[in-house]
Amino acid sequence: MNAPTSLLRRLFASTLATATALVAVILLLATVGFYFFELRDNPDRTLFDALWWAMVTLSTVGYGDIVPVTVPGRIIGMCIMGTGIGIMAALTGNLASALIERRNRKRQGLAPVKTSGHCLVLGYNAHAAGLIKALAAAAPPSRGPVVVLVAQITPEAFAEAAADIGLENRLEFCRGNPAQETVLGRASPATARAAYILSQDGLSPEEADQQTLLAALTFRGLAPKVQLYAEALLEANRQHLARAGVDVTLIRGDLAERALGAMGEHPALWHFMERLLGTPGHRAMQARPLAHEERGLRWSQLVARSMADGGLLPVAVFRIKRDITIKELLDADTALDQFILELFAAYGQEGRIGNQGPVVLVNPGDEVDLNAFDGCIILGREAGPSRDHAPEPAAPGPADSGGARHE
Question: Are 206 and 214 in contact (CB under 8 A)?
Fold first, then answer.
């Protein structure tokens, strides 16, 4: 009894749904009535012909291929003509209003974004535009948006930022606090490729990191398997973010401090890092998975093989984050361990006890088993300077003050 009443309330609450229901009812009654009074004695006519006549008459098209000849049939036609103009006008107007409202909700960042394989940027600060450009440049081809921004900014501010970024339909917007589940849920977090949490400007470091932590907890509740990166302001909060499910935490200014420190050792180190980072789509370093046959090689063999095949130099191996289950730590040949495994299986539990990784080893050496890693980082070949345009020797850095020579 409650279900039909609830359905009727929802139906009459929407003008578009009400108009659509009235059109359906009129078509149904007109089809049955016209067939009964006009077509039932004609074996060449069916209910579909009656529906065709009702639709043509209701829409005021009036092809004239089927016309009523009886008085009841003509009365039905008159009723449809009288009500058809108003109802069809109301249906058309409400449909146009619904489309305009949906477009306005999308422009204001209130409409759900239905997509997959995208990147989420949670929060907005001075670094957001550069991050969005980099993510869009590195994203694989996609029909839908490649980046979805979830932030507490006005639609006008987003429109201005989107015009500067220049991604058009490849960038979507959800307005609101990314730490709120209802807001973040509109951005399809479970189907995202990765998510990035940016520190909010205008807050103290403690408050900004607290907002980042809340956003991480909310995201992990909606998308437990998606890769999550976060920006923090205080080193002390790195461990808290890791417990909240953040895979990688970047402390603002940390990389800049390290770069300055490298420049203090020798200026060439900074230029080397600059060439490695490059620009999106033009980086000297790339990450690729290890092939099955490469996992059985030694590190020196992998380097030699890669250099011989395409001149690409492997410099590191990595293992992405993965769950660790108790099955990996127990010995199935031991009676006690076997009993524990059977208990987990009986209760339908996987026995997940944590996660491992991500791990990166630079130039690991031949003693490292490559089977334990998922991929490698390689450096592409870069054209060197010609002899006629050899670069000037760099000025000696602080490490050169004693006359030491750097190769």
Answer: no
